[in-house]
Amino acid sequence: MSKLTKNQKIAYAKVEAGKAYKLPEAAALLKEITFTKFDASVDIDVRLGVDPRKANQMVRGVVTLPHGTGKTVRVLVLCTPEKEAEAKAAGADYVGLDEFVEKIKGGWTDVDVIICTPNVMGKVGALGRILGPRGLMPNPKTGTVTMEVGKAVGEVKAGKIDFKVDKYGIIHSSIGKASFTAEQIADNAKEFLGTIIKLKPSAAKGSYILSIYLSSTMSCGLQIDPKSIDTK
Question: Which regions of the chain does DSSP assign to beta strands (E)?
């Protein structure tokens, strides 16, 4: 077993083993135990009491974080010429169609979100094998297939993210940066958790939120008491 660094020893000394923290308390403590020289991401992991193999227990949704993600989101809009000006005005990083379809076929996926209009889905659908595994495939359910491309770009740039439960029943997402205040981290987490709670499948039985952990890049995870989450 490798030796703990000085900062790791400080961090572990601050964390009470086996304790489930209230969200504001955990957000404040997370900042105290994050020692990276870069602006670390703040991550949240939520284990749900669902069986993702069953379609009626799949949990997937979108949420706009009140304080954004802290990340520079690179957006590609695939559309016909009449929508290009709208997309560019909203701040899209890349706008076009055929040239980007060919670039993607060649292996280019250097973007974070792809938005497209419904009338180009025929061309975009052919890219599913490339975009799907990378989580980049546009989807009407997440608002990334729309004629309102300007609105969609604005929402993504402002902090709109999509999430989906994995095959193990866990939802994992980044919800901010370590440079955020504790209040901002707690606000984003509260909004994220509130959205998940609203999406509880009617077919899910028993406890829905099984566990919640908050962490930053390279920090230990802090367990959150699900009963302490006030999403009102």
Answer: 41-48, 60-64, 75-78, 94-96, 113-116, 160-164, 170-177, 209-216, 222-224
